[in-house]
Amino acid sequence: MSSIVYLNGEYVPRSEARISVMDRGFLFGDGIYEIIGVYNGRLFRSEQHLERLQRSLMAIKIEHQFRIEEYEQIIQELLEQNNITTENKYIYIQVTRGISTTRSHNFPKPSVKPSIFMMLDDLVRPSFAQLQKGFKAITREDSRWKDCFIKTISLLPNVLLSEEAIENDATETILIHNGYAIEGSNSNLFNVKNGVIITPPKSEHMLGGITRELIIELAQQNNLPIKENNITLNDLYSSDEIWVTSASRDIMPIVNLDDQIIANGQVGPMWQQMQTIFQGYKDAL
Amino acid sequence: MSSIVYLNGEYVPRSEARISVMDRGFLFGDGIYEIIGVYNGRLFRSEQHLERLQRSLMAIKIEHQFRIEEYEQIIQELLEQNNITTENKYIYIQVTRGISTTRSHNFPKPSVKPSIFMMLDDLVRPSFAQLQKGFKAITREDSRWKDCFIKTISLLPNVLLSEEAIENDATETILIHNGYAIEGSNSNLFNVKNGVIITPPKSEHMLGGITRELIIELAQQNNLPIKENNITLNDLYSSDEIWVTSASRDIMPIVNLDDQIIANGQVGPMWQQMQTIFQGYKDAL
Hints:
The structure is a homodimer. In chain A, helix 6 links the parallel strand 12 (196-199) and strand 13. Chain A is built from 8 helices and 16 strands. Chain A is of the alpha+beta class. Helices cover 29% and strands 30% of the residues of chain A. At the A-B interface, strand 3, helix 1, strand 7 and helix 5 of A face strand 3, helix 1, strand 7 and helix 5 of B. Strand 3 of chain A pairs antiparallel with strand 3 of chain B, so a sheet runs across the interface.
């Protein structure tokens, strides 16, 4: 059975949800998105995600159409209509600049109503066995645009970078910008060295993740040494541990980078500790 | 009356043409496009455009679905169904990776059928009076991704850069990469200095336009001195003439850059000459 999605005011089966070919999301990738985890039927840090959604809209000059409470209301309606009570899912929200009459790079004048699409999708989470074994990643030069802090749907660079991981039997592609590891193609990056957790500082080149922020908070609350610092490619190779994190995949331990074994090739103790803390936080929601 | 467009095998009024929200064009900007001018009902360099379309598809690893003749057949059908015989229009072609069942950066496995959308749209051409007066442009740092040679629909960077021109009462934004002027947000760039026409050499940072190539050809055929060379921002300011060129706007003379008057602020003699040659070429089609 096709799940029920929200599209511009209507609740329709996903298989029937269609948008005009003149929507600027389809013609120009002219929009932004957000992903909110749903654990045991409960929203995970939705306020932070919805605030970032508003910041993304401002960054690309789409006038706000909905208040945060209105998004929350639609999310609740989607959870109800799809009978989500105990499952783990995620909410996907996409807002585009709306539907043009002709195709022109420039914003429609007068401005049109933004298009809003929201759906529930399955979290594809690694199994316990996979997590205990660890994952492989590759590194590539960061080919993305300069304003990576904007969570845009113009994602072709990320798509191609992410696919390179798959072509190399890996899980994620870590992006190197001017010699520094920034983040993954759709995740943030942490490494551990000599007992300290390190993550690159926020910049315009990075999409500062909500999960990344939570991990920093949880480390601080649990007295685990953590700092924001630049990470070079050589730092990465000589890490004791590497993690990639995202709202849809939590914390994934990387034990092999560019076909080089990281440390002893085993999932590390700091990851075990953080994973337990993270799981505890989610279970207590 | 809404014009007839082509969408995945069907000819439908544009106002009724709708695509699944799960199309990767809508979710990821995961596709490419092409624009072919139609003058007096005749296609302008369609073979070159369709060959570039195939190269774009290969570059983003979408398997070819149509041969060039099949695109040409649909174009003819669109011209007929919309009764285009003498008008100036352009054909827009967009191909995306197709429709996924779930949202994942990675290519669908097994691969799905690409989505193909084609429409006719109006050429918004400057009037003779506007052309004789010349246009204003601005410069901005090139914020786009590294593989600008791919004509992708992930166009948010171009959209935002192009809109900055409008906000500054200008027509186009010329992009500066590492100190060199590369091209416009949706055009190629030429300048004239001491009787020589200059255009930046092709690179991965540039979308080498079909119109750009034609201008080079026409200059050579007509013994106008032309060369490919890097152009710095200072070179631009001290130009005798600046032009931006595209399939939808031909050759536009720029007489004001970043609020600085270029040369004497008048449209230059080389532009007049090239414009006449270009118009003659089109009339002889």
